[in-house]
Amino acid sequence: MPTAIDRTGLAGLAFSTLGCSGESLDQVIELAARTGFGGVELRAAADEFLNTGLTAAERAGVRQRLESAGLVVLSVCSYVGLCAQGGEPDREVATLGDHLRLAADIGAGAVRVFMRDESQGPGLSEGERLALDRLLAVHELSRELGVRVLIETHDSHSLGARVANFLSAVDERIPDHSFGVIWDTAHTWSHGETAETSLELLGPWLAYLQIKDADTGFRPVSIGAGEFPIGDLLAILQRHHWRGWLSLEWERKWHPHLPSLDEALPATRAWIAAATP
User: Fold this and answer.
1) Chain-centroid distance, C-alpha 219
2) Does pLDDT of 6 surpass 70?
3) Is the peptide bond before 122 cis (omega within 30 degrees of 0)?
4) What pLDDT, in 10s, does the model give residues 201-241?
């Protein structure tokens, strides 16, 4: 019998290791196998098994184990802020370059970044102009490595409209780029943008979607206990014939009251199955 994912036409289900921060690679692989999730977003940080301090041998070992497990790495999740101001002017570029090399070494196709813009327009803000310069600085490296830079709809750029405006400017300045976007659907929803609008705006650059459930105050809650309109989202994706991954960004590191991924992953599969048109 076809699964909900098959009927919806999505590539598959993934999860972020933000939901199991501090666990080992072996534990992540075992969790994915046990729950039937085929993709992962790997958080890169000093307190994780994946970080830019890994040696070449360690990186090769991570890649071999991921490939043996058949896990697709959607992105390496960095904390680079493209619009960040202050400090050493080239620090964000250097850090992004380090994460691009890490992603290439372990077989990931992309690096997740944030915008983190504290400036305002009109037109492109000062921070966005700085972000453009930074993307131009890593463009050749990104292309050589075959690793994309993906902006998550988050913080200052939670709205698809603002991300689309910025990426349109990137298109003009760097026409042959492969940069794109991770659509955190809860962030655009929490800022009043409909899923239909977000998809239309972000479609030209869309890599994959993140999902989670949230209450009326937009706080993360157990899957199925909140108000996130998962049924509407799935219907819109199907109507637009969108193909790609859905990834559960389970923010348990920041919200320890949430259930573990052992509970959240099966609940997510059931949530999607129940809501699939």
Assistant:
1) 19
2) no
3) yes
4) 999 999 999 999 999 999 999 999 999 999 999 999 999 99
Q: Does domain 4-275 have CATH number 3.30.300.30?
A: no
- Would the pLDDT of 101 be above 80? yes
Q: What are phi and psi of 122, to 5 degrees?
A: -70, 165
Domain boundaries, the chain: 4-275
**Looking at this protein, which amino acid is placed at residue 272?**
I
Give the residue carrying structure tokens 């996130």.
228
Ranges of H-type helices in 49-194: 56-69, 91-106, 126-145, 160-173, 185-190
With H, G, I as helix, E, B as strand and everything else as coil, classify residue 246: strand
3-state secondary structure 30-61: HHHHHHCCCEEEEECCCCCCCCCCCCHHHHHH
Measured CA to CA, the distance from residue 80 to residue 91 in angstroms comes to: 9
Count the neighbouring beta carbons within 10 Å of the beta carbon of residue 250: 27
User: Which amino acid, one-letter code, is at 210?
Assistant: Q
CB 45 within 8 A of CB 51: yes
- Report if pTM > 0.85: yes
